[in-house]
């Protein structure tokens, strides 16, 4: 015990010596050894926490996750260098290597959290060629319309005698994005919407008017697994390995998240293998359907379905299943929650601003009258000017991805200070979008601000530069 106490005192002394002699000290809450600021009041509501810190300490302050220091930037001028699209950018890395992500088998996979720049470039190449293909955009518009009609059919089926269907729109939004994004990426149906509808009726001792013909056994589990996996990523990044191993309750949490990861990876692996088999047995004179999974499986093969070829010497090899799996789960994890939250908040703001809803209905009525019997397409959507303003304002006031990160690969000057290689920054997108220096009444929901073509305020949604979010399409 004496040895343990001595080690604790030594470590605490070293921690605070390093803290008070750190390079470029910035204002911010004083961290605790090992855990940093994660026990600060309100830290669990991180958006609200960082907003309070911004107003207290300014547009550039520091916080600690565990032993790691993060520089929080909330002013657009401070982050412009990080949005450089050049291949020589000093910010081609979002985060450094984290042992926790290696344990979760995420390190060096996908693109969003990939610390390996060369692997990131390879993966991004194949994602971009799929998303930039016109067939992908066209099929996405058609599929979204079909899915909306399907969901509205469930609402109609479940309505009472008065034609009303009272429900939780947030849950429906999450099920909708689960179905839509998994279909965009894999071409297969998860049926998360239908599974939720059946569960909802079962809780009311009711049955659907038309029995399901689909296999719904894994639909809800997949939906819940994705949400659990998101929590697991933050858990393994923030909680140091030593703490997780020493505290039994955190050790049990680690096992729980690893078990969930195994199930999710196995589920995605089965989808990949099934699609490979389908492609193998499809006659060569028959076209293959277009989705991200098929695009990646056939890349750099004689069955390549992509209309856009991005040929270079670095990306000539076909993609193996492990690489494809890393991209697929990342697309699902990164898109389902953020998109669903965006839909939910648009509904919320429209409900609390009836004057905006009234103007929206006028525009939509005129739009669909003009469309007649034609189906929606990308070109026609450009006519929805006020609708676009509502979406932009909702994105600004409730940023679906409120933060992004950059880890410098070389020394650089940020906010007039020289920072060494390896400095970790958090780009506070929410902070920029609510900064009083750029926006009049930033907390007010006002779509009209986007009808002024002279607007020059920096409106950031998914970051910028080479490491901007590829899945934003």
UniProtKB/TrEMBL annotation:
InterPro entries: Cyt_P450, Cyt_P450_E_grp-I, Cyt_P450_sf. One of its GO terms (molecular function) is monooxygenase activity. It comes from the Eukaryota. Coiled coil: none annotated. PANTHER family: THROMBOXANE-A SYNTHASE (PTHR24301). This is 4822_t:CDS:1.
């Amino acid at each position: 015990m004496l040895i343990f106490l001595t080690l604790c005192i030594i470590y605490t002394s070293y921690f605070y010596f390093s803290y008070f002699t750190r390079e470029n000290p910035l204002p911010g809450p004083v961290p605790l050894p090992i855990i940093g600021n994660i026990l600060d009041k309100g830290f669990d509501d991180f958006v609200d926490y960082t907003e309070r810190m911004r107003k207290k300490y300014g547009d550039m302050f520091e916080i600690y996750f565990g032993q790691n220091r993060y520089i929080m930037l909330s002013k657009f001028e401070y982050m412009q260098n990080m949005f450089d699209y050049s291949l020589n950018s000093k910010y081609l890395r979002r985060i450094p290597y984290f042992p926790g992500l290696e344990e979760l088998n995420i390190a060096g996979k996908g693109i969003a959290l990939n610390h390996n720049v060369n692997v990131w470039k390879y993966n991004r190449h194949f994602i971009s060629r799929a998303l930039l293909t016109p067939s992908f955009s066209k099929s996405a518009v058609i599929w979204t319309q079909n899915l909306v009609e399907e969901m509205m059919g469930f609402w109609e089926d479940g309505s009472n005698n008065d034609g009303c269907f009272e429900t939780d729109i947030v849950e429906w939004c999450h099920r909708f994005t689960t179905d839509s994004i998994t279909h965009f990426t894999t071409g297969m149906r998860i049926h998360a919407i239908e599974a939720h509808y059946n569960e909802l009726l079962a809780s009311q001792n009711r049955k659907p008017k038309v029995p399901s013909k689909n296999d719904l056994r894994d639909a809800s589990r997949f939906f819940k697994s994705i949400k659990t996996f998101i929590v697991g990523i933050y858990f393994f990044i923030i909680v140091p390995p030593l703490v997780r191993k020493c505290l039994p309750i955190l050790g049990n949490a680690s096992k729980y998240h690893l078990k969930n990861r195994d199930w999710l990876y196995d589920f995605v692996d089965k989808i990949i293998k099934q699609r490979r088999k389908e492609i193998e047995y499809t006659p060569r004179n028959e076209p293959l359907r277009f989705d991200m999974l098929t695009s990646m499986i056939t890349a750099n093969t004689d069955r390549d379905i992509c209309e856009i070829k991005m040929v270079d010497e670095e990306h000539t090899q076909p993609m193996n299943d492990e690489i494809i799996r890393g991209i697929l789960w990342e697309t699902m994890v990164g898109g389902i929650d953020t998109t669903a939250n965006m839909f939910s908040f648009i509904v919320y703001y429209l409900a609390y601003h009836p004057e905006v809803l009234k103007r929206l209905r006028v525009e939509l009525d005129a739009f669909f009258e003009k469309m007649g019997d034609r189906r929606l397409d990308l070109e026609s959507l450009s006519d929805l000017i006020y609708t676009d303003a509502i979406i932009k304002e909702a994105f600004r006031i409730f940023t679906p991805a409120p933060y992004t990160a950059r880890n410098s690969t070389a020394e650089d000057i940020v906010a007039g200070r020289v920072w060494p290689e390896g400095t970790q920054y958090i780009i506070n997108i929410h902070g920029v979008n609510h900064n009083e220096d750029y926006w009049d009444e930033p907390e007010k929901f006002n779509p009209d601000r986007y009808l002024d073509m002279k607007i020059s305020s920096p409106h950031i949604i998914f970051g910028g530069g080479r490491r901007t979010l590829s899945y934003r399409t």
